[in-house]
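sanity check this:
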Amino acid sequence: MKTTNSKDSVKVNQILPIMQDHFGQNMNLARIKLMALLLHALCVVQTVSLHKLADAMPTAVDKDSNLRRLQRFFAKYVLDLADRAYAQTLQRFIIGKADINTLTLSHSRQQEASKNYITSLQNYWLSYYKIRKLTLFDFELGVPIPTDFDRTLGVK
């Protein structure tokens, strides 16, 4: 677990209300917070390497957790962008302004983005259930998971 610098956290907290005012109607708070952390990390490391950005984010969680969070965030937006690009390319193909090669390339990129998004969701849920299994706590219901398996299964 890494330690956070309070000065960095203050900087993120200062930009957060501004971003909430701007994006609040279109985006949930968790994504706005991630964007504030990402903006701060970009200023600190001045690079586009996700590994370095994840390490520079002023949070109390592990670098790998931040990295997976960034990957999920970008995978969703890349998928949305690929879907829109494919729809536009298909319309251009129908009216004769795009050739079959362009349409095929756009479709391939859309499928790749979809595959990456599904993989990131799978990794998220695998991590979630691994944490649930290790802690024996049901986060959805907010209760401990019973460990008396014989009684749970009705075995005498």
User: Anything to note?
Assistant: Residues 1 and 62 are 5 Å apart (CA to CA). The helical segments are 6-23, 29-45, 50-56, 63-94, 100-135, 149-153. The chain has six helices and two strands. The first helix runs from residue 6 to 23.
